[in-house]
Amino acid sequence: MHLADMTPQEEKLIKFLRQVGWGEVRLRVSEGQPVLIYEAIRTHRLEKAEQNKQKKRNSGQKERTRVWRAQ
User: Fold this and answer.
1) How confident is the prediction along the chain (71 residues), in pLDDT tens digits per residue?
2) What is residue 16's three-state secondary structure?
């Protein structure tokens, strides 16, 4: 399959992954197609935990778990 032959579900999955940027994603696949992303989990190294807290305070960003469903 070429990139030009991607289904809408595959395109949505790629866009979602680009938005997440890093972390872990659990994915349900049915008949070779992505159907559901259960969780997007961001991980933090313990030695950098204090730096991550400081960055979050300074940027005003909140960590989220997203659920995405292919339509």
Assistant:
1) 566 789 999 999 999 888 887 778 889 999 999 999 887 666 667 775 566 566 666 665 555 566 666 66
2) helix
SS3 27: strand
Whose CA is closest to 12, among 39, 34, 29, 42? Answer: 34
Instruction: Return the structure tokens found at 67.
Output: 């659920």
| Length of the chain counted residue by residue | 71
As a whole number of angstroms, the distance between CA 7 and CA 25 comes to 20
- Report domain extents, the chain: 9-69
